[in-house]
Every structure is written in C-alpha cells, then in structure tokens.
Write a structure and sequence with these properties.
eight-stranded mixed beta sheet; 15 strands; three-stranded antiparallel beta sheet; about 450 residues; alpha/beta; binds iron/sulfur cluster
Length: about 450
Amino acid sequence: MEKNELISQIRSQLPKLPLTFRYLGALKEQEECSNYFGLDYKPETIYALQTNDEPVGFFYKQISRFIHPVAVNSTEQPDSLPEETATITMPVAIEPDKQFKLFACCFPVKGASRSIICDIQRQHFSFIPNILYDLLVQDSDTTFAEMVAIYGAENEPILREYFDFLLDQEYGFWTTAEEARHFPEVSMEWDSPLAITNSIIDMDANSDFDIPSLITQLDELGCSALQLRSFSQRSLDFFDNLLQHIAGSRIKTIDIVLPWYDGLDIQTAVDFSAKYQRINNFVIHGAPFTKFEGNLNKNLTRIIFTQEAVTGEHHCGLVFADYFVVNMTMFTESHHFNSCLNRKISVDKAGYIRNCPSMPEDFGHVRNTTLKAALAHNGFTEKWGITKDQCSVCRDCEFRYGCTDCRAYTQLSGQDGYGKPAHCHYNPYTATWEYPGWVVADDEETLHSTLENA
Ligand code: SF4
Ligand code: SF4
C-alpha cells in the first residue's frame, strides 16, 4: 500500500474535531508548529511505541538504544576512573571531562515508560528513554567520563549515542561545573494580566441571548480567544455581524463551529475567513464530505469540513497528539493550573454561565448575571487549579505539560474530579495510543500487512 493511501486510511478512522481549541490560537503564527501539531495527522502517532526495554519507535526522531539495565541502578561512585576510560577515543562532540547542560528552554519530562525533552523555545519535543532522563536530571553534574565509569565501558557507545543525539538536536552543551553556575534556570511561574483568557459561547435554535453584549463583556475581561459554537444552522451573515462586533476588541483568535447548509462550500468558507484575520479554525460540521483546507486564504485559517455532526457540548474533551502544544505559556501554566479551564468562562446554549458548557455547575444566567459577577462567585475558580500532576494516570504521562486537559468528562466522573480525561486513549504505562478499532503496530511493515489483511 502506498504511504499516501495508508495515511488516508488512517485519517478516515479519526473521529476528531478541533474543538479543544484553546491553544491552537497560539500556534497560528507558527507555521512549522502548525504543520507538526496541525490536522495533518501523523500516522506514527498510532504506532505502538517503545516500552522501557525496547528500542524506541523509529518513526520518531529519537534515541534507539538503552543502557544495559544492570548498570542502571548503580549508585556507587568510583574513587578513580577505570583504566579503559583513560583510553576512550571520543568523537569531537563529546567532551569527557565536562558535564552536559540542557539549554534553559529544554525541559525533560518523565513518564511511566518513556520521557520527552520539551523545547519550549523551538516548540517541539523528542522522545528519550527514561534512563537518559535520569542521566540529565539526577546525574546532571556528572562528567561523561564519570558516567562511563559508573555505567561501564560496555555502555559507553550507548552513552555516546545519547549525547550525540542531544548535541545533534541542539538540546544542550558540554560545560564545566564552574561555567554551569552562570546559566540561570528559566522561571516556571505563570501569570496573566487578563482576568479571562479564553471563552466558549454555545448556541442552538433556541438560544436567544444577547451575544454581542457577551462579546463586549469578554473584551472587558481581557479575553483573547473565543469559540463560537453553533449546533443549529446559522447563516454566515449571522457570524459576519458578530465578527464586526469583535473588530477592535482584544479578542485575538476566534474559532467558528457551525453546521453545514446547502451552498456553504469551500470557496464560500475561504472567502468568508479571508475577511476576518482573527478566524483561527473554521469548522463546518455535518457536511456531505470531509475535507481539510489549510492556509488557503494566507492568514493560516484552518477550514475543516467534517461529516461528523456536532450536536452538543459533549463533542468536546477529545485528547489527541495533534492537540499537544509545547510552548512557554502552556508549559508553565500547566505546572500550576488546569490546562483547559484556567481563566476560562463560558455560556452554554441555554444561556447559563459555566466554567465550560459541559461542566455541571452554573453561576447564573446571562439575562440577570454579568460575566464579571459570575467570575466573582464563590467556587468559579475552584477547578482552575487542578493540574495534570494531580490527576490519575496523567500524572504518569510524559505529555502532561503539553496536553490540554478536560475536567468535564473524566474517567472518575462523580468521584473526585481528578480522573484522566475520558476521551484520552493514550496509555502512558505502555506508551501506546489505544483507539478502539484502530490498527496499532510496532513497525510500518506490520502496520501495512495488518491494514492489508483487515
Ligand atoms: S473541560 Fe472538557 S468539555 Fe469543557 S471545554 Fe475543556 S475539554 Fe471541553
Ligand atoms: S494520559 Fe493525560 S496527560 Fe497523557 S495524553 Fe492522556 S490526557 Fe494527556
């Protein structure tokens, strides 16, 4: 099977919509990042990847070998280096008497079965084995020669491979302990001057509340990302009026989600989104065809026609690798706050103000409560502080600082609110995406033959 056919086949199985939109706005100006995390789904995402003692999947740029496990737990520091290390022939890149320092923008994150290095400046990540995480974090002040002494000469080629990889990917550099002191850490604090950073307004055929008034209120609260999500047919004129109201506001990115209607074709969608530079995602659901058009209007709007009908707020909360975001804001915010609900305020289709339209608690109706009053309500910010580090399974996942959370649909709903998002199919204990009905394989050859025989 041709690779393109394979990719289309895999894509056709994707039941996803870009409704977890929050951070996509931040990617809009990052073409490279959009390509990486955008809707051009990477087939490798569904390959079964490595466990702790298996080679890392070769479809990712990453390290392929592991230090012999016998040496891993060794805590003994030799008094002097064994003889063989004195005669090691190092490649130019390896500096045996220096320690390796990651650049301040490169953060290793450990998961249950593998780790990643997040480069929040260049906005990408690479997989690494957990043993390399330990070398970088626990043995950060150990020189290469000392590592060879600790882990044994038989592991030296693998150690060299590890650090060649890190140098090749420009994740760090060799330095002395003295020099290392002069490179301060990046602060992990997160704050925003905006009372609200993002919002969802839902609507259906019965929604009769004043949306322009809500937009004005959101602007006053500083909101910069807004999703307008319609479950019933609305003309483009309707959204045209709203977008004119948004002009001049502080709202920077807008997602529009609306049902398809006869006459709403690709060119119409392209022409409409070209008028409004703020439109980030333009999703037409319930369409007779599925098509993704990116960047046609040169302002990087993603135009998505999908056959899946978005009939209610329950279509939200999906977790996919495409939605991962590696940047400074996401990385620092998710260390302290919830990566979906923090600084979010929403209005459901009936006009009730909630953290998000799917959350059970409401904080008043828009007819008699302002967004500002709802925000000041006791309990409104309660969920803002739930981090992935506090949630079951997610706390063991290497993606936890780049993955948008969901607190409305969790595996422990009704218990403690700290469960893994229900619509996440990633298993960090096996490093596998476990999609029901999806084909998962260890390598491309197996994947091909499985698909061909399906
Ligand atoms: S909490 Fe879940 S359902 Fe609510 S907006 Fe976030 S992802 Fe969507
Ligand atoms: S397990 Fe949690 S952190 Fe990991 S991908 Fe799923 S939702 Fe995200």
